[in-house]
Design brief:
mainly alpha; 84% helix; 0% strand; globular
């Protein structure tokens, strides 16, 4: 190697070694600048990450809102369709019940006398209606109606087919026991059925009176109750008035005991 080259390299190395070192202040400045640059880069990265996260959340919220809107729209349309069908079914049922009620009022008002056999026929019509529209809640009603029908059959078998409601108020204790035994029911249950028949008889007499006087028949149960309260004491027989007085006296005694 040429001597000149070696010397040149040594001079260059010497100049590098003899270059003055930077002061502590300048080193701190350089270090701070480096830190600022790295901090800025990291901040930029964090900002970019935050912005990208916000964008993803925005897209997620937008898609969720869109999906929820579609679900609400589907639910509201399904609910409206269901409500429409349900409403139509309920209105149809109400119209049918109203027609049956008016037909029953007309039949009862045309009867000159209400017999136990008439009560049984009205009960059979109700049973047919329950059978045609049977549901879980109506099974109890159906069983109760069948039990009442069994009791009425026992009454007619002992008192005869021409027996009326007033005849039931004059039966002896022995006859009551015979009816209960034949129907396989308690004496208390027979008494309850007799009360039902009396109520139906009073309603029939009220309707018959209004029919003969040319008054309109009650169009619903509430107006029927109002008509009974107004005309009941007029259409009742003496035995039925006596029955009502005894019931009122019994209720008054029970109220006094409670006090």
């Amino acid at each position: 190697m040429a001597f000149a080259t070696i010397v040149t390299r040594r001079i260059v190395a010497s100049s590098v070694l003899l270059r003055p070192l930077p002061s502590i202040a300048s080193q701190s400045c350089l270090l701070n600048n480096d830190r600022r640059r790295s901090t800025g880069i990291q901040a930029d990265r964090r900002n970019n990450d935050a912005n990208s996260m916000l964008m993803r959340q925005h897209r997620h919220i937008h898609s969720s809102n869109s999906m929820n809107g579609k679900i609400r729209q589907f639910s509201s349309s399904t609910e409206s369709e269901s409500t429409g069908i349900r409403g139509w079914m309920e209105r149809r049922k109400e119209r049918k019940e109203q027609e049956q009620y008016e037909a029953q009022m007309e039949r009862l008002s045309n009867m000159e006398e209400f017999k136990l056999t008439d009560f049984k026929r009205e009960l059979d019509r109700s049973l047919k209606g329950l059978t045609a529209n049977i549901s879980f809640l109506q099974t109890k009603e159906m069983k109760a109606a069948k039990d009442v029908a069994t009791c009425v059959e026992s009454m007619t078998s002992i008192l005869g087919d021409d027996a009326v409601a007033d005849d039931l108020l004059g039966i002896t204790r022995l006859q009551r026991l015979q009816i209960a035994d034949k129907a396989d029911r308690t004496v208390e249950e027979i008494g309850f059925v007799i009360s039902q028949i009396q109520n139906m008889d009073i309603m029939q007499k009220t309707l018959r009176r209004r029919k003969l006087e040319g008054k309109p028949l009650p169009e619903n149960a509430q107006k029927m109750q109002e008509a009974i309260k107004k005309d009941a004491m007029t259409v009742m027989t003496d035995s039925q008035r006596d029955m009502v007085r005894k019931k009122q006296q019994g209720m008054a005694k029970r109220m006094q005991r409670r006090k």
